Amino acid sequence: MTEWFLFLPQVRMQIGDVVERATVADAAGFDGIAFIDHLEAPGATHQGIWEAMTIATWVAARTERLRIGHLVLCDAFRHPAVLAKQAVTLSAASGGRFELGLGSGSWPQEFTRFGIDGGDDAAARVDRLERDLALLRDYWAADGERAQIPPPEYAIPLIIGGTGRRTMGLVRRYADWWNIPSHRLDRLPELLPSVGRARASLQQMVGFVGRDADAAAVTERSTRLFGHLGSGLVCGDAAALCDHFAGLAASGIERFYVWFADFAAPQTICEFAETVMQTAQKGTI
């Protein structure tokens, strides 16, 4: 069955706004919520951004059923032993609702600005990610020299994104979910058979034309703000979006991270859930 996550970058919002959107998504039937992990807002460094694990913990404490995660945490920001302990703690506190999305870092400028090693060396960043994934497995083991106490009470799903050769190897070895970038969807038929047990997910920016909305205005504003995403942006009413997501689901995508172009106005969250997601629950997506 298709899974629906609200993708909510914790940028240009107060913490109360983030919590409001999360609780609305929880009540509306979304399966989960995902945040980003940066020390500055990519491409908008004048905007404030909240720390990723803290905001996830705060939201987990104020929701009942949403799974909580990130697309994705940057492994360079936290020692893997600390990250392993954070993940186990948040998983236990939330009743097993935490998922660990992990990557090597996508915004090298913040590495330089904040004095973090390896920002300009993509190969070194992947080396570190590979090392840290192996260490997490050691930290979460039932026993062994590096095993932490307590061990995970619940399974902690691991999400890895990307399409590079080395990244795909890490997906096969470690991931429960593989997130394919929307601008690489043309490679889905080629890559999907190679991901092992991982299931495929996709982040999709949506300009949602609600019942009383002006379609031209929604499309114009969404395109002005996010047109640079190319195929990563889709605009339309509920019927058009049902067709769009049904096609993606038929191609093998099992989870959608929905990123709303209006910054997830609560009304948009509710109406999307009542229309597109309810259609999915009836088995047509």
UniProtKB/TrEMBL annotation:
Keywords, sorted A to Z: Flavoprotein, FMN, Monooxygenase, Oxidoreductase
Biological-process GO terms, alphabetical: alkanesulfonate catabolic process
A single GO molecular function term of this UniProt record: alkanesulfonate monooxygenase activity
Domain Luciferase-like, residue spans: 13-200
Keyword Transmembrane: no
The keyword Chloroplast belongs to this UniProt entry's keyword annotation: no
Protein name (record): NADP oxidoreductase
Taxonomic lineage of the native organism: Bacteria, Bacillati, Actinomycetota, Actinomycetes, Mycobacteriales
